[in-house]
Specification:
With 428 residues, the chain is an alpha+beta fold. It is built from 15 helices and ten strands. The chain has a five-stranded mixed β-sheet with strand order 1-5-3-8-7. Helix 13 runs antiparallel to helix 14.
């Protein structure tokens, strides 16, 4: 068995590549060297035109300046990256960094800079008094122009996207997309007949050898493996759970032959922390983290928390419209139940969205009013079977307001619902 052959290993490798800030720039470096060799080989008598020809001194000076400029620009982008890390860990959420590392524009900028550097540096060695790579020098100048345009786009993007509200929109969009696609996949894999998981006979327990947070399941692989052994896999842990070594990951019910435990565990990806690939609750976790950091005494910015609650409400509306039984049964191609996955129900998402923000913001009139408006809005649009949990959160909010605001006048203000926290249209 070779290295990096299991699905879990390949998943972890993909995660590493997505989060890496050196792989794409390194490819740009290699590509710059190769393009320089092609430019030198393509340089001839008829190209470029006479107006685009350079003396050896001019070409050497231009390429040397380009090399220095690209090194300086690389340092500038790295400095921006350090500032982003400081801001994210200080005022936003360290969990957001996992998403920021994946920004494709940032990798494209780094790759363009390293590629232009390698291109210009490779051309320098071919300059002689009687031989100048005119085409290559011209292309190097064009690469600098492209680099500057990308730098301006990069600055514009991160100047605007580092605002908490922009980050909240990005995180909510990613989490909503993961939730919607996951719900559709589960509906499409529903079994032909609703039936209980076989409970008679011995149950085989598959334990993990290594520990870590559950990042993803290879659902199709688990279904196929269960079908091959004519059994049902019951996963015992949620996506995002941290499991120590030796923990039970899968229970095997029924079937004549027993699957290979190592083969089963290789269909479950474990890592150092949660990812958003199959875990929409991780997106909600990031949003809540940003909101409660804004409510800390060191920051004291309830307006930012209110803006984040806007996107939490959007996320809850998306979740509330989908059936959440808390336990999902998936079938194989023949419609037979093969895989049982634990899932979060509506109360899990609602508590994650509300509890901590309510506790940390109970002394803020803005937060109390905004949460009440969010809960009232959920009662207006969600099906009746979800109302009890929403009303329970409203009761907890009322208790917090009663406890925190002893003055009747201030309490009356805090008990009003306001979609803007303070200053919007409210109802008593």
């Amino acid at each position: 068995m070779g290295v990096m052959t299991s699905w879990a290993d390949r998943f972890r490798l993909r995660q590493y590549v997505k989060a890496s800030l050196w792989i794409v720039p390194t490819l740009g470096l290699v590509l710059g060297v190769l393009l320089a060799e092609l430019a030198i080989a393509a340089d001839g008598e008829d190209w470029p035109p006479s107006g685009w020809r350079y003396s050896s001194t001019t070409a050497s000076g231009v390429l040397t300046a380009i090399v220095g400029a690209m090194v300086a620009l690389l340092g500038f982008v790295v400095t921006i990256g350090v500032l982003v890390v400081q801001q994210a860990t200080g005022t936003l959420s360290p969990r957001y960094m996992r998403l920021w590392y994946r920004n494709r524009l940032q990798k494209a900028v780094l790759a363009t800079f390293t590629g232009t550097f390698a291109f210009a540096f490779s051309l320098l060695r071919s300059i002689e008094s009687a031989s100048v790579p005119d085409l290559g020098v011209t292309l190097a100048g064009a690469a600098v122009a492209v680099s500057l345009v990308l730098l301006l786009i990069y600055l514009n993007r991160f100047t605007h996207s580092l605002r908490p509200v922009a980050i909240a929109e990005l995180v909510m969009s990613m989490g909503g997309a993961v939730f919607t696609s996951g719900a559709a996949a589960i509906r499409g894999a529903a079994p032909r007949e609703e039936g209980a998981v076989p409970s008679d006979g011995p149950v085989m327990r598959v334990r993990t050898v290594r520990g870590g947070a559950i990042q993803a399941f290879n659902v199709a692989g688990l279904v196929a493996e269960a079908a091959r052994h004519d059994c049902v896999f019951v996963v015992t842990r949620l996506i995002g759970d941290f499991v120590p070594p030796g923990s039970v990951l899968v229970e095997v019910h029924g079937g004549g032959s027993r699957p290979d435990p190592e083969r089963v565990t290789r269909l479950v990806a474990l890592g150092a922390e949660r990812t958003i690939e199959q875990d929409p609750a991780f997106a909600l976790r990031v949003l809540v983290d940003i909101a409660i950091r804004a409510l800390s005494p060191a920051v004291n910015d309830p307006t930012t928390a209110v803006q984040v609650i806007n996107y939490i409400e959007w996320f809850l509306h998306t979740v509330g419209k989908a059936p959440l039984p808390g336990r999902y049964v998936l079938a194989d191609r023949d419609g037979d139940a093969r895989l049982v996955l634990p899932g979060r129900d509506w109360e899990d998402y609602l508590q994650l969205a509300v509890c901590e923000i309510r506790d940390y913001g109970q002394s803020s009139v803005q937060i109390c009013r905004r949460i009440r408006a969010m809960l009232d809005g959920l009662l207006d649009v969600l099906p009746p079977q979800l109302h009890p949990s929403v009303r329970a959160e409203l009761s907890l909010l009322e208790e917090s307001v009663e406890r925190e605001f002893t003055d009747p006048a201030r309490r009356a203000i805090a008990q009003q619902a306001d979609s803007q926290g303070i200053g919007g249209q409210h109802s008593s």
